[in-house]
Amino acid sequence: MAYPGGGYYPNPGYGAPQGGGYQQQDPMYGYFLAIAGQDGQIDAEELQRCLTQSGMSGGYKPFSLDACRLMIAMLDRDMSGKMGFNEFKELSMALNGWKQNFMTFDADRSGTIDGLELHRALGTMGYRLSPQALNILSKRFSTHGRITFDDYIACCVKIRALTDAFRRRDTAQQGVVNFMYDDFIQCVMSI
Questions:
Q1: Cα separation of 41 and 176, whole Å?
Q2: What's the gap between Cα 166 and its chain centre?
Q3: pTM (2 d.p.)
Q4: CA 177 to CA 37: how far, in whole Å?
Q5: pLDDT for 101-126, tens place per residue?
Q6: Is 143 helix (H, G, I), strand (E, B) or coil?
Q7: Most CB atoms within 10 A, among 17, 106, 130, 136?
């Protein structure tokens, strides 16, 4: 089973040492420390402020606190509810890719896309979903048939997190997994 990726969420930080070395040379590290505060981690409220101040939302409205919680959950490997520097960098790279993708399909620069444009945007990232799944996504993430940037990011985060969870369980890469009920609930509710 080939899983989508499309280069929108590379994995730069796995196995990298924490602190010192390369991080102090990374220009993002100082920015991260200023946001993270004394605990050296970023929670959803800090992430929301960070993304708003950095202009990541571009001409669009700031990310909702819910969307920021989703972003953290997508990368929260230690289940702390916060993200460290490597997770922050990974999120930054993913967001930049998703923003470019969104802007490609938001041709009129209205800050929204429709369901067909969502289908095309997800397709460019390698997701091949059934019309039924796309219809559900479009209904879930749209308001009056239009999907805002914030909701687009929430959609991308959920799809990526669910795909990653599925991929970890699909050891034979057959596109089929068996879930115990409790594992299924943990997987879905952690996103």
A1: 35
A2: 16
A3: 0.77
A4: 41
A5: 999 999 888 889 999 999 999 999 99
A6: strand
A7: 106
